[in-house]
Amino acid sequence: MMRSNHEADRRVDARAGAEPRSRRPGGSSKTSPSSGLPWRAMLRSRLKGDRRVDASAGAELLSRSALPSDRRGWRMPALLGAVILAVGVSACGASSASRIPSERVDEALRDEFPVEGRRWAFEAENEVIIALDRRDAARAALAAASDRVARAEAWEDVADRSGKAKAPVAALVAWRKEQRRQRVARLEEAEVEVYCARAAFELTKARLAVRFGLPVKARYLVPFEAQYEACAQEQAQASAAVQDAESRAGKALERWRDSRREYVSKTGDHDHGLWID
Fold first, then answer.
1. Looking at 54-63, 82-91, 94-103, which range is the least confident one?
2. How far apart are alpha carbons 265 and 90 in whole angstroms?
3. Higher pLDDT residue, 94 or 253?
4. % helix, strand, coil for the chain, step of 5
5. Which of 150, 145, 170, 183 has the alpha carbon at shortest distance from 72?
6. Strand, coil or helix: what is 210?
7. Model confidence over 251-267: pLDDT tens digits?
8. Is 242 in contact with 189 (CB distance < 8 Å)?
9. CA dihedral over 32, 211, 123, 136, signed as positive or negative
């Protein structure tokens, strides 16, 4: 019951953007052993809420009908591809995010923590929950991006049939695909963050075991610290990939806008159905 109450309190604090509380019963604040980890600030700065989705989100895409009813027949194949991608990413995301650190603190050792140590451990564990929420939000964003690609490809079919606005519509499709690649990179980064949050959790527990003088072997912290550092490097690489994908998507957006502007200036065609960002 104690664990449930503290976990609920800290989860609410984290989602509100507040600093999780780690105070002694007397009210005096004390620095948590995990406060030196760079994950805390990074996770909170990017937290945007609890959005849990699963593979059923892909099925929802199939039920949407934003195009006129007489076009649904040829729009279906594009949407089917989006559904398959969304379901596949959902399955892959669940597998990747289930990575468990190889170095783990024995649960029996954790049970020996005093009340103060358990509070700090609950706080570190809450960071894993936050990372999972952010991973789920990234997965939902990818599903939405896949839907936008399907819609753009449907408009490309319209342009091919009519012979109008083929260049700007092709640029639109290219931009939407770059957006989807960026969402894929972001999801991969979020999955690494889940693993790193778990590594940070294990490191926090190991530090607590040493701090409270529990029976551990010599140089007990070394493998936990090495595990966390390796994960931090992996996360840095994933973040760089996201930045690169964002840059490519931004350039694709500018190319689409230039193509759209050129087409409109030549033809005077302001068909808003194709020009909405």
1. 54-63
2. 43
3. 253
4. 75, 0, 25
5. 150
6. helix
7. 999 999 999 889 888 88
8. yes
9. positive
CA-based nearest residue to 104, from 230, 39, 38, 200: 200
Phi then psi dihedrals of residue 234, to 5 deg: -65, -40
164 DSSP 8-state letter: S
Q: Alpha-carbon distance 276 to 68, whole Å?
A: 16
| Residue 29, SS3 per DSSP | strand
Q: What tokens does 254 get?
A: 């500018």
Among 272, 96, 116, 113, CA closest to 196: 96
How far is the C-alpha of 123 from the C-alpha of 29, rounded, in Å? 14
Place of tokens 């190889």: 102
Q: What CA–CA distances, in Å, run from 107 to 34, 104, 202, 205, 222?
A: 18, 9, 11, 10, 19
Length of the chain: 277
Please state whether the predicted TM-score (pTM) of the whole model is above 0.90: no
DSSP 8-state symbol, 38: T
The residue assigned the tokens 């398959």 is 84
Query: Please, are residues 70 and 105 in contact by the beta-carbon 8 Å criterion?
Result: no
